[in-house]
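Lab notebook, bench 4. We co-purified these components, and the gel suggests they stay together. Before we commit to crystallization screens, I want a quick structural picture of the whole thing.
Request: model the full complex, all chains together.
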Amino acid sequence: MSGLSATFSSPLMQRALLEAIMTGALAGVVGVHVVLRRLSFFTMSLTHATFPGLVIAELLGISLFTGTAVFGLVVVALIALLGRVRALDSSTATGVVLAGGFALGVVLISSQPGFTKDLTAFLVGSILTVQTSDLVITAVVGVAVVTVLAVLHKELVLGAFDPANLAALGYPVLLLDGALLVAIELTVVAAIPAVGTILAVALIVAPAATARLWTDRIGMSMVIASTVGALSGAVGLVVSNQWDIAAGPTIVVVVSTIFAVSLLVKGVSWPVGRQAAPRAASPVG
Amino acid sequence: MSRLFIEPFQAGYLQRALIEAVILGIVGGIVGVHVVLRRLEFMADALTHTVFPGMAAAFVLGGSLYVGALITGVASAVLLTLLTRNRRVTSDAALAVLLTGFFSIGVIIVSRSRTYTADLTTLLFGRVLAVDVAQIIATALTGLAVLVVLWALHKELVLRAFDPEATAALGYSVTTLDLVLNVLITLVVVSAVRAVGSVLVIALLVTPAAAAQLLVRRSVGAMMATAAVIGAVGGWLGLVVSYEGSIHHGWRLASGGTIVLVLTALFASVLAGTATVATLRRHGRRPGAAATTLEAAAS
Amino acid sequence: MTTVAPGWDTPALVLDAVAVAYDRVTALDGITGTVAAGESVALIGPNGSGKSTLLKAILGLVPLQAGSITVLGRAPTAARRAVAYVPQQDALDAEFPISVSQVVTMGRYRRVGWVRRPGRHDKAVAAEALHRVGLSDRAGDRFGTLSGGQRQRVLLARAIAQDARLLLLDEPFNGVDGTTQELLLGLLGELRAEGVAIVMSTHDLSIAQVACCDACVLNTHQVAFGPVDEALTAEHLREAYGTNALLLVSDGPSPRA
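Here is the predicted assembly.
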């Protein structure tokens, strides 16, 4: 135990720990909606396609958060639009955007000299270099997102379960879906310092997927998911520090292990959602 | 003109890169048609991430990246097939966790190396310009094997893609057919990953086929031929653009990424083109004319 | 190429106390009946009554918890080549790049075997089947460009091309237009005259009375299995559907001669 308190005596580690816990908790809550609506691939595409936003923000010298967030909104719109093309399935659109967006980021960043170090930070996180400003951003985003999700809770759940009903009742389905997608995007961006773009989806999906195995109630899912997320962040950080390995991936391995163990304990019968129509569900509408 | 399109390929290393890129474009495009028709994009993406730890381990141990990727790749193909069989609703959450978990293990393995960040970059983005003859031969042979199996099982795989119920009713094992396809996808991923890297392989499998789907819906075979052409052109043009940019304009454009960007641009062009044609056709029709086919009525 | 065929006096289908369960939930229980060559039975029951499950069981695609199914004198898995399944057309992707004639030819795949391509004879059989459903002129069109009823006909043509002895149809009359309905009824009659046995799930009681000689009324448990007039009584239907709201059942002889 004394080793642990020694580890966390430095402000660097304290900031890292706080970031890990906050990010994990936020991602867990948002993740419940992602899992509910089967948006894991979409979120994956979001995380990858947002990458060029990071690079552009860095190149332009503007706040990484703002640049990435704005770019992310463009990506959301793009996938939603492409999903409406009749001959294209939404998962195909998601795949094209994922690869194209990421390639753009790769090309932009590789055009700069000395890029490998920055790149790694963007891709798999660099939680140890987190600044107080990052903590503030994560906290603000966290509060904002959780508030919005709480306020719109029953509408979002209805929309996930029965979008036709939601529309029939007169709700602005597009706005509601859009609000959720924006919340997901902001969470992705907030998670980048901790785990980077490629792994952000793990922190969002795994705690929520774990929660789904243990409970059927959405409210309880959020509690479990945020706890698992925060815990994984903390434990992952400690482990990575002890063994001198990259923090972001370690956090992900921890949360994936928790999920895998839950899967084994609960039996591998993953709860199957409503029967899919031949076309895959689009994230919007 | 020739400066633009021919000059880049005087140098040996670029000739090799071109051959590699074109082979991958063709094979990826053809296999990608199945990926797109059966909405396997996420599964394919998962496979690209699960080969990563194998590659990372091989890299750190100084072994063959190809073999490392192959081992974890085929193992995950089997695992994923079992995980997703008999489900009309794929558990995409489980898939997402699986692939990021595997991927993280790979990153951790690489992070133990002194040249961590540079190594990670190489593995993630590939180095098509560093392709040697041995690699080309491996790619060509793998590609050939994949295409032969696809050709032999063509009618069964198309049947399965179109009507899994009838496939089972006729007595075929849908799970076995799926396993075969997933292994074929894995082989494409494994051969492409050294050239364009883990993250961008998905583009070779999805983008050319997606563009082909917009252009051609006559038959699966026609779609495959179109996708192969688009894939090959993307590979070639991508190298041309990155060379032109790097040598003549001083922009250092990563070749793998540029190939994917070109493919995406081709896709966007096809999309814009077909959308325009469809809109023009709609407005060209006289308002009172009766629709003669269901398709015309529905568009 | 001839397949080993049991004699025409072997019943096409024998169901004996068939029971199927999914995860401890009973899907089918006590289904018993026989279908001889050239006979047809309608599966009547509300949604979720196990009609699709029964069809899958006859194909050997779901394990039985109890009882037995004999298809053409053999176990279901052994008889698959002689059994053709016609699914509902709306389960298929309308955007799929496949032509009408290709779909019909799919019925021949098992005879063609692995690796080989359908030969001239196979294509001729497919063309003939397509002709029988009246869609020869659409052979080269993409499957998805046809109307719902036309697609259903193409799927029936696929089953005909298979040269099967037992035909299983899943709600074939759902959402089809009048022309298709008449055509389907006529075709089913022709097939029966050729000795093909038919099992057909349907909601439509009047179709059942016209098209089938027997009916199996079920709601997980078997309510009745016998000649249409005896099985489709108000009492049996009440038991299966659970309400009195069935207006079209006549207690007199069926309108069919």
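Residues 249-257 of chain C have pLDDT under 50 and may be disordered. Worth comparing against the SEC data before the next meeting. DSSP finds nine helices and nine strands in chain C.
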